[in-house]
Amino acid sequence: MEDLNTLISQLTLEEKATLCIGATPWLTAAVERLGIPALIMSDGPHGLRRVSDEGMNEASKPATCFPTASCTASSWDVDLIRQLGDVLADECFALNVNVLLGPGANMKRSPLCGRNFEYFSEDPFLAGEMAANYIVGLQNRGIGASLKHFAANNQEFQRFSIDAVVDERALREIYLPAFEKAVKVGKPWTVMHSYNKLNGQVMSENAYLLKDILKGEWGFEGLVESDWGAVRDRVKSLVGGTDLEMPGPKPARAQAVVDAVQAGELDEAILDEAVRRVLRVVFMARQTSKTAAGFDVDAHHAFAARLAAEGMVLLKNDGILPLEGQNKLAVIGRSALRPHFQGGGSSHINPTKVSVPLDEIKARAGGAEVLFAEGYPEDDSARQDLIDEAVVLAARADCALLFIALPTWKESEGYDRKDLDLTAQQIALIKAVTAAQPRSVVVLNNGSAVVMRDWIDGAAAVLECWMMGQAGGIAIADILFGKVNPSGKLAETFPRRLEDTPAFLNWPGELGSVRYGEGLYIGYRWYDSRDIPVQFPFGYGLSYTSFAYANARVPKEAITDVEGTVVSVDITNTGKRAGKEVVQVYVRDVESKLARPAKELKGFAKVDLLPGETKTVSIPLDFRAFAFYHPKHKQWLVESGDFEILVGASSQDIRQVVALSVESTAELPSLLDRESTIREWMEDPRGSDVFAEFFAQMMEKTAAVFGGMEEGEGMGMNTMDMFMDTPVLSVLNFMDALLPASPDEIVDGLLAKAHSL
Ligand code: BGC
Asked: Rounded to the nearest whole angstrom, what is the distance from the C-alpha of residue 459 to the centroid of ligand 1?
């Protein structure tokens, strides 16, 4: 690697400013006289949208469209995700790309977010594992990742300007951990910050997030780039931690940086640091850069099919699947012929080829007659004729396969959904077909949860196929006909009604800001803590076989927080087919001072089992598995006490519970201050002794002021109950005349004693 400091000292001020702004929509500036090449970037995340270096919205070069993140996350298969990174790297070499703009690690705060298809999960642990493994797979091959969109970019509505108002605990425990894991484990070359504001500060200038947390606490050494067009003021954004503004060129902005340095308004050291981070990545890319003539289109298509099959989730099956022995199949729905396998926006890929579900079904139908009806149009028009045609066909067949895809006008980057329903035509179609043909299987393509209560009772089976990538047609047919045993599990809850969803009352915000009023409680954390029935819980998915869980255990019943533990469980395939089970480990803090969700995912493993086979799965749980973020101590802490380790097949199908006692090793300073209440003094390990003595004296005096403390005495209420949660200072303020010193002096004296212990 070049000596970056020497190189920086040879650059002119103008060159440095120019290096920190794109030279084209996708390239950084090259400085030929010093041998500094351009860095070439391309969207992402689930395939390459490689346009020309100057191009923006033109058709991109053919590339494999892999399943989007909702699908890959539902595989719960970290090895497969790492392999995806590896395969994507091949295409980057072939299409001359150094950095792929992905993965997206934002949380699915609401299923309404139009871009959820590009994000992994409603759970930070699962999303973090997925993002980190994607990055490792890609970067092991010498292609950089751009982890995006940092942070709290959880909706498309007003995404360029909305102010996400998020409390510190929700930020630390829900919205940041997936990024944190991906940064610490994956060490992405670049992180892309989002468009939105966070707690009043635009992300491009958000020094707290970009400098203190990302570069400081997490030790991120790569470059921070803006989302495309997210910078408002280049000088302020440099100060705030944005190393590279994209896209470019923007000569006036580069000049503004030069002027600011010359006027003494911008410390040149800040610019130098941004340049150093840009150059570091530029030279990392040059070191590993190689070009390939092409990539193996068929092998990548086959891998895309495998990935899709692992991520599809069988939601309902009354026994109709896998299909067997049919003579006549009615395939209904335009997405069987024109598959909906990706989303709209910057991730949109020009696929190398597309597997059509209808063709794949015909190829596996084993001589059965396959009929087809379109069922619904592309737009939102009502077409009873298409429904009538479908019903006739369905009634004539042995079973109906209903292909229903949520159209792009309902779900895409750039806008959010207004509801969680399928289109009115699709709902009417499903109802009519399932009424005419009870043996109906609904095959869904959508990027995030849809509601089903209007029609699910009529369906014999439902297969969730997500935005499944270009080879999804193969995966669908393989699952329907039993060549593949489904093993995907939901990485997001499917609610019953929009009104039940966590952000319902705080969505999409108003007057420019959106308050994350549900705090920590998104996804299953909300439904479980509030006991709200859902259509399908987080972590849920059926298989053509069944699994038994036994002997969940930990080596020691009591541990310290820093020790961590390993939970082991024996999983047996109790059915007749080989299959895979996603074993999930949730942690519950039995009692805690600060509010905590009913349970939180802290580990998982996917295990492959032959019929009758048993394997022991061991899942590690570290400090963070038991910790919460304490906003006042500003650190992760474990509260000493009892925990439960819940081992299950979904968030609501807990099969085994293991008790564990965890002892905190943290040495914490007292949080007592002038506002501290009597209860807080009494419960504080340092303050309680100091306070006890004082309290005894005070009690005598309070009687003189307030009369008796018991109900029916004095003020006719239980005065002590009120005082327990009143600051000592406020109580003393009622008793001024009786005190030997002023209330302020007394409390300050107590505080001095408590803090000196
Ligand atoms: C999107 C990013 C994308 C970038 C470049 C932005 O609008 O939010 O995800 O990488 O454009 O296309």
From this structure: 38
Give φ, ψ of 568 to 5 degrees: -115, 145
pLDDT for 722 equals: 85
Residue closest by Cα to atom 4 of ligand 1: 228
Q: Does the C-beta of 374 come closer than 6 Å to ligand 1?
A: no
Q: Which residues are known to be catalytic?
A: 227
Burial of 741 (0-12, 13-18, 19+ CB in 10 A): exposed
| Measured torsion, CA atoms of residues 203, 204, 205, 209, in degrees rounded to the nearest 10 | 50
Ligand 1 atom index nearest CA of 159: 8
- Which of 697, 642, 674, 665 is closest to 752 using CA atoms? 674
Ligand 1 contacts CB of residue 41 (under 6 A)? no
Euclidean distance between CA atoms 365 and 327, whole angstroms: 9
Label residue 696 by pLDDT band (50, 70, 90): confident
* Distance in Å, CA 227 to ligand 1 centroid: 6
Strand-pair partners of 514: 164
**How far, in Å, from the CA of 88 to the mean position of ligand 1?**
18
Looking at residue 719, what is its pLDDT?
A: 79
Q: What pLDDT does 714 receive? A: 67
Mean pLDDT of 392-401: 97
Q: Which atom number of ligand 1 is nearest to the Cα of residue 44?
A: 10
Tokens representing residue 428 in the block: 């009417």
Q: DSSP string covering 357-388, please?
A: HHHHHHHHSTT-EEEEE--S-SSS---HHHHH
**Which residue in the block uniquely carries the two structure tokens 């939180």?**
600
Pocket test for ligand 1, best of 53, 68, 101 (most atoms within 8 A of CB): 101
For 20-50, how does the pLDDT look when each residue is reduced to its tens digit (9 = 90+)? 999 999 999 999 999 999 999 999 999 999 9
The CA distance from 195 to 107, in Å, is 16
| 273 Cα distance to chain centroid | 30
Which residue segments constitute the domains of the chain, with CATH numbers given?
Answer: 311-536 (3.40.50.1700), 547-663 (2.60.40.10), 678-756 (no CATH)
Q: Is 120 helix (H, G, I), strand (E, B) or coil?
A: coil
Which single residue is written with the structure tokens 């043996």? 439
> Which of 228, 348, 412, when mutated, tests ligand 1's pocket best, judged by the most ligand atoms within 8 Å of its CB?
228
Provide DSSP, 254-284.
HHHHHHHHHTTSS-HHHHHHHHHHHHHHHHH
pLDDT class for 734, splitting at 50, 70, 90?
Answer: confident
Nearest protein Cα to ligand 1, atom 11: 228
Residue 112's nearest CA partner among 338, 406, 376, 535 is 406
**Substitution candidate for ligand 1 out of 24, 100, 346 with most atoms within 8 A of CB:** 346
Specify the pLDDT at position 704: 65
Residue 703: predicted pLDDT: 67
Q: Are strands 641-650 and 144-150 parallel, antiparallel or unpaired?
A: unpaired
Full-model pTM: 0.97
Distances (CA, A) of 559 to 17, 598, 640: 53, 21, 10
| Cα–Cα distance, 138 to 116 (Å, whole number) | 22
Q: Inform me whether the pLDDT recorded for 699 exceeds 80.
A: no
**Token reading at 698:** 């005070």
Structure tokens at 538: 């987080």
Query: What phi and psi, each to the nearest 5 degrees, are found at residue 145?
Result: -105, 155
β-bridge partners, 224: 191
How far are the Cα atoms of 338, 464, 490, 550 from residue 542, in angstroms, in the given order?
A: 27, 11, 10, 19
| Per-residue pLDDT band at 440 (split at 50, 70, 90) | very high
